[in-house]
């Protein structure tokens, strides 16, 4: 673990960050959304325009053999409750396409506290685009967690 310090250097060999959906939402996303400080190494902030302007292989470094990365995305242009099912990347070099419906993440009492949408990356343009191995899970909080002044709905 060259160049790593602090808590990362103290982790045992073979340790992997593999949180469940519930852990991601309750311990990371909710804390981030409600301005509770997170350690710097938890996740990288990335603007949605940057995320959707480049193919996924240019957004990550394949260091340490890791195959999963976590980002906090900000600057989403969607209205709360409205989700795009296709996101064009760059000038049409590829696109992210949803792989089904948004799924609810529920606690043991059956209350929804998070939502998850899965996307697959396609290289090229439709109809000749090729499915790639890149997958992205996008998590968000239900609208009841958003401050009232920030909730917008398109008609």
Automatic annotation (TrEMBL):
Residues 11-155 form the NAC domain. One of its GO terms (biological process) is regulation of DNA-templated transcription. Pfam families: NAM. Keywords: DNA-binding, Nucleus, Transcription, Transcription regulation. One of its GO terms (molecular function) is DNA binding. This is NAC transcription factors 46. It comes from Manihot esculenta.
């Amino acid at each position: 673990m060259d160049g790593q310090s602090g808590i990362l250097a103290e982790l045992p060999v073979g340790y992997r960050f593999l949180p469940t959906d519930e852990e991601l939402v309750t311990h990371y996303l909710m804390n981030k959304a409600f301005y509770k400080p997170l350690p710097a190494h938890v996740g990288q902030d990335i603007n949605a325009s940057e995320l959707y302007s480049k193919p996924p292989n240019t957004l990550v470094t394949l260091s340490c053999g890791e195959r999963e990365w976590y980002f906090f995305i900000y600057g989403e242009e969607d209205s709360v409750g409205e989700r795009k099912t296709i996101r064009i990347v760059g000038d049409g070099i590829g696109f992210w396409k949803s792989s089904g419906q948004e799924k609810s993440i529920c606690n043991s009492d059956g209350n929804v506290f998070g939502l998850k949408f899965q996307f697959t990356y396609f290289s090229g343009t439709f109809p000749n685009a090729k499915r790639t191995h890149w997958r992205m899970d996008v998590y968000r909080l239900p609208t009841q967690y958003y401050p009232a002044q920030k909730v917008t709905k398109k008609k």
